[in-house]
Amino acid sequence: MGLGKTITPLLAAAVMSMCGAGAASAASFEEVTPYLSALHHYWDEYYGGRTRLKESGAIFALGVVGTVATETPVLFRGRSEIFGGDVDYDGETQGLTPVPAKTDVVYLGVREELDLAYRIRLSRVTVEPFGGLGYRFWLRDLQDTMTQAGAAHGYTEAWQSWYWLAGLRSRYPLAERTTLELEGGAKYPFYVSNTVNSATVRPQGEWSAFAEGGVTVGNLKVSLSYQGFRFTQSPLELSGANYIYQPDSSSDIWGVNVGWKFQ
Question: Domain 3-260 class?
Answer without folding.
Answer: mainly beta
